[in-house]
Write a structure and sequence with these properties.
This protein starts with a strand and ends with a strand. It folds into 3 domains: about 60 residues, SH3 type barrels (Roll); about 60 residues, OB fold (Dihydrolipoamide Acetyltransferase, E2P) (Beta Barrel), CATH 2.40.50.140; about 55 residues, Nucleic acid-binding proteins (OB fold (Dihydrolipoamide Acetyltransferase, E2P), Beta Barrel). It is built from no helices and 16 strands. It has a 6-stranded antiparallel β-sheet with strand order 1-6-2-3-4-5, with no helix packed on it. It has a 5-stranded antiparallel β-sheet with strand order 9-8-7-10-11, with no helix packed on it. The protein is mostly beta strands.
Length: about 190
Amino acid sequence: MASTSDVNIGSYIRFNGDICQIMEWQHRTPGNLRAFFQGKMRNLRNGKLNEHRWRSGEPMEVLRVEIHELQYLYREGENLVCMNQVTFEQEYVPATLFGEAMKYMKEEMVVQVGFESDAPLFARPPKTVELVVAEAEHAVKGDTSNKVMKIAKLENGTEIMVPLFVDAGTMIRIDTETGEYLDRVKK
């Protein structure tokens, strides 16, 4: 069992049954009071930020998390089959770990997956993805006085809002965290 002095920014701990990553970590010694550690952490299950104080030397459960870059091969039921690009071993990663970003993923993408003793804890898709627009409505001439958007259907079936000048067959870049159009990709 580790203590508060073993924790740093970026460490993973088990807090109230959930796995959290330390975002801020400060040692404080206020006037007449005892020293304590104050930390801000992100819950990996729901993404919420939480703050907590620990006494100096208090035992904490620090997790040993290994982050691997894996290539997404295909979906099998509720899992994604991903391959380690160094050892060529296949790992099964639950699709729920990717959350809403799963809509923008396609095969052969490289993703980051965090493992604790061979069990996947969290997964991160690439920050941006490049997808081809399969269908888009035609723009109305002269309707460009402000930022006008239209619905476009991507190659994987997901619909997003894009500017009027984007047509079918155009490759676009999308932010996987927000699901927003970023720009056109020039080949």
